[in-house]
């Protein structure tokens, strides 16, 4: 029976439309997997020497000390990215298969996930290095078993927490809290946890704890799934209570207001689009790496321009880039309704501009690092509004990837969103402002920022011309776009 | 109102639709019947310029649909769930369509009130998004939305499918009322011969992309069609 399931899985994997669609993408996926595998492998072998020589400490002690962060971060990434396969077991329910078999299969499938295997690439070479360097072989193996058991504990924790969106926030706060209090020597939690993690090596019995924990979690997940294996409980999507919202204050903007109203609802009510707001906030803080001067390589003015584009452009890049794909589920409605392309495009443009303006306002906390820093960010914002917003919409017109609004998981790994036109249009978005700055910098840094902002103002002046271009693309690509949106995964 | 000339649609060399000549005068209630793959939805999609004709063209009110968008203000259609916006509540969806068709909230409310019994108390003020409604209820929303703004051409693909018997009955009444209005041209497709005959004054049967029958509805029509489709 298990064998049949596996054959089914293999077919669903190889026949997925995203997999078959694009050879280039397949290659990129493989390269990506190999890259991360190699990275962890190198880390596994290399970290031993790096820690030993640079920090003059016992690598096992150091790894055990920071293992807590590793685990929490892993859980965070899982909640963000790991897919829990529940929907595709629906057709199995009425077939003559034992429920326990179905549950075991679904759980077993998560155990084979890339998110678990990835860690083996780190822990196996690291353990080999320990063995080579005369650590006690028996307890090294026990330590290894314990750590891998903890990784699998994360896997099942993710299964159990998957439907709870707030866990994500809790973990981020936890991670940030631990990090900050340790950095400022307020409270070092690793002093306590490392006793446990290092204890896995120093004792013969400690490894039983993670193994027992894993068994317990497996049992709880099993029970949880088994009890909820009904269409109206565990396998059901969430049924939210819907409120009708009018946003009547937008009515005075006419058709533009109608579209804006719809887009605000789109963003607020769908998982996938809510992610763009989350990402925008993350981008807002991305600039800290550059503006605080904490990383030497980034501490120069042209890298700061680069950062400024990102700080204020988060919403633009994550939302604007996928216009009109956000409306893919009902694109035939849009195409047969009484809608002028121009109004549709300018509504999206305004949304992107409003998003960028809000980001620029929120970014005012960069004033803490000096007026100069904030001026750079404002220059980036002007460039984003005047120049990049058009490029983003133009690029989006070529992206024909239907977006599944209900799923948040594609946010990063949206494979099909990758195309040549999109890539080519990325260059002027990021490289051009740097070039402009360097040109102006020949006079003075201020002139450099002025050049960047000036390009934005110039772009704004050519707005109507660009809109006409986008309109033309929409028209010529209409049938292709409609056909592409019809294909669902 | 609608003129079709030498319309053909081909996918990879296979012709899925081939209509030499077809005229639908204003005010007609036009029924389209045929088996799966007969080309009913393809025809409607061409009519709405959602797919590109391989040859020939369609004009609505003397506007060629794949050249100008001038047909959009007076045309309304519900083909499938891709005409619904899943994250809106039914009310929001109606108002959205209303605003696009130049109707204010009061106009839309009046229309909804008129069709209150069609909704059977399952649609309005239920605090549910469209995506959480059942298939049948989603269909009700889509059908009523096509009536917003008094369109001159209404296109409904398989409107009877997924509806409960009572609602089917009510829908027939709505379509018949529209058919009585000589300004409204209504096009309905269905697998169900009896329903279509009841609401249409002209029936066109399609088979493998071609028109095989074109008859004015009479008491004999059902028999004639049943004989044709019985194998």
Side-by-side strand order of the widest sheet of chain B: 6-7-8-3-9-10
What is the CATH-assigned architecture of chain B?
3-Layer(aba) Sandwich
Tell me the overall shape of chain A. Answer: globular
What is the beta-strand fraction of chain A? under 5%
Question: What order do the helices and strands of chain A follow?
Answer: HHHHHHHHHHHHHHHHHHHHH
- By DSSP, the count of extended strands of chain A is 0
CATH topology label of chain B = Rossmann fold
> Biggest β-sheet of chain A, characterized?
none
CATH top level class name of chain B: Alpha Beta
Helix content class of chain A = over 70%
Low-confidence stretches of chain B: none
Radius of gyration of chain A: 26 Å
Structural class of chain A: mainly alpha
- The span between the termini of chain B is 35 Å
Shape, per Cα inertia axes of chain B: globular
Could you report the average pLDDT of chain B, rounded to the nearest whole number? Answer: 92
CATH homologous superfamily title of chain B: P-loop containing nucleotide triphosphate hydrolases
The helical percent of chain B reads 25-40%
Domain ABC transporter (chain B): 2-231
Keywords (chain B): ATP-binding, Nucleotide-binding, Transport
Protein name (chain B): ABC transporter ATP-binding protein
Pfam families (chain B): ABC_tran
Structure description:
The complex is a heterodimer of chains A (489) and B (231). With 489 residues, chain A is mainly alpha-helical. Chain A is 73% helix and 0% strand. Chain A is built from 21 helices and no strands. Chain B is α/β, with parallel strands linked by helices and 231 residues long. Chain B has a single domain (2-230), classed as P-loop containing nucleotide triphosphate hydrolases (Rossmann fold, 3-Layer(aba) Sandwich), CATH 3.40.50. In chain B, 33% of the residues lie in helices and 27% in strands. In chain B, a hairpin with a 2-residue loop joins β9 and β10. Chain B starts with a strand and ends with a helix. Chain A binds chain B through residues 239-246, 255, 258, 261-262, 265-266, 269-270, 329-333, 335-340, 405-406, 479, 482-483, 485-486, and chain B through 48-52, 69, 72-73, 75, 77, 79-80, 82-89, 91-92, 95-97, 99-102, 127-129, 131-132. Chain B: This is ABC transporter ATP-binding protein.
């Amino acid at each position: 029976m298990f064998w049949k399931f596996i054959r089914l899985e293999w077919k669903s994997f190889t026949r997925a439309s995203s997999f078959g669609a694009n050879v280039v993408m397949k290659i990129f996926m493989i390269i990506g997997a190999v890259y991360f595998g190699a990275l962890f492998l190198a880390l596994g072998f290399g970290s031993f020497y790096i820690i030993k020589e640079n920090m003059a400490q016992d690598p096992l002690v150091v790894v055990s000390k920071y293992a807590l962060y590793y685990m929490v971060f892993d859980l965070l990434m899982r909640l963000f990215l790991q897919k829990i396969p529940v929907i595709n077991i629906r057709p199995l329910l009425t077939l003559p298969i034992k429920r326990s078999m179905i549950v075991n299969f679904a759980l077993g499938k998560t155990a084979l996930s890339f998110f678990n295997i990835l860690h083996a690439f780190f822990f196996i070479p690291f353990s080999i290095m320990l063995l080579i360097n005369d650590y006690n072989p028996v307890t090294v193996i026990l330590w290894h078993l314990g750590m891998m058991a903890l990784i699998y504990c994360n896997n099942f924790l993710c299964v159990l927490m998957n439907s709870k969106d707030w866990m994500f926030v809790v973990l981020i706060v936890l991670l940030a809290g631990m990090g900050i209090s340790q950095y400022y020597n307020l409270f070092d939690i690793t002093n306590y946890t490392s006793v446990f993690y290092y204890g896995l090596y120093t004792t013969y019995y400690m490894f039983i704890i993670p193994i027992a924990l894993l068994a317990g979690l497996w049992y709880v997940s099993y029970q949880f799934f088994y009890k909820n294996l009904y269409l109206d409980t565990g396998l059901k999507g969430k049924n939210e209570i819907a409120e009708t919202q009018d946003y009547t204050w937008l009515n005075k903007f006419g058709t533009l207001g109608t579209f804006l109203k719809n887009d605000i609802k789109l963003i607020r009510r769908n998982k996938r689009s809510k992610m763009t707001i989350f990402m925008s906030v993350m981008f807002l803080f991305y600039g800290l790496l550059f503006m605080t001067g904490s990383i030497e390589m980034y501490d120069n003015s042209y890298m700061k321009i680069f950062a400024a584009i990102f700080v204020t452009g988060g919403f633009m890049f994550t939302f604007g880039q996928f216009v009109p794909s956000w409306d893919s589920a009902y694109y035939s409605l849009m195409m047969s309704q009484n809608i002028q392309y121009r109004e549709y495009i300018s509504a999206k443009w305004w949304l992107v501009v409003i998003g960028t303006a809000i980001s620029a306002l929120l970014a005012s906390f960069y004033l803490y690092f000096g007026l100069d820093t904030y001026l750079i960010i404002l220059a980036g914002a002007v460039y984003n509004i005047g120049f990049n917003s058009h490029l983003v919409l133009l690029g989006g017109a070529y992206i024909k990837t239907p977006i599944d609004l209900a799923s948040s998981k594609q946010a990063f790994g949206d494979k099909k969103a990758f195309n040549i036109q999109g890539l080519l249009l990325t260059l002027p978005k990021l490289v051009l402002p740097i070039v402009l700055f360097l040109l102006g910098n020949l006079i003075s840094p201020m002139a450099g920022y002025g050049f960047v902002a000036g390009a934005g103002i110039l772009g704004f002046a050519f707005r109507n011309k660009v809109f006409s271009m986008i309109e033309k693309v929409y028209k010529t690509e209409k049938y292709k776009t409609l056909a592409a949106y019809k294909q669902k995964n | 109102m609608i003129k079709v000339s030498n319309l053909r649609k081909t996918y990879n060399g296979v012709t899925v639709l081939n209509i030499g000549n077809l005229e639908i005068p204003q005010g007609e209630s036009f029924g389209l019947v045929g088996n799966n793959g007969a080309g009913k939805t393809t025809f409607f999609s061409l009519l709405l310029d959602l797919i590109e004709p391989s040859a020939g063209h369609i004009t609505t009110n003397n506007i060629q649909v794949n050249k100008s968008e001038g047909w959009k203000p007076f045309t309304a259609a519900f083909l499938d769930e891709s005409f619904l916006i899943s994250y809106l509540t039914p009310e929001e969806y109606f108002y959205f369509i209303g605003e696009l068709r130049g109707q204010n909230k009061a106009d839309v409310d009046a229309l909804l009130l008129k069709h209150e019994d069609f909704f059977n108390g399952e649609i309005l003020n239920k605090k549910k998004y469209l995506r959480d409604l059942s298939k049948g209820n989603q269909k009700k929303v889509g059908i009523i939305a096509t009536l917003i703004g008094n369109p001159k051409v209404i296109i409904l693909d398989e409107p009877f499918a997924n509806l409960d018997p009572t609602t089917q009955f009510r829908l027939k009444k709505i379509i018949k009322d529209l058919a009585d209005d000589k300004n409204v041209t209504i096009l309905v497709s269905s697998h169900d011969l009896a329903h279509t005959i009841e609401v249409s004054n002209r029936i066109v049967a399609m088979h493998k992309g071609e028109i095989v029958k074109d008859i004015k509805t009479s008491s004999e029509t059902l028999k004639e069609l049943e004989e044709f489709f019985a194998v």
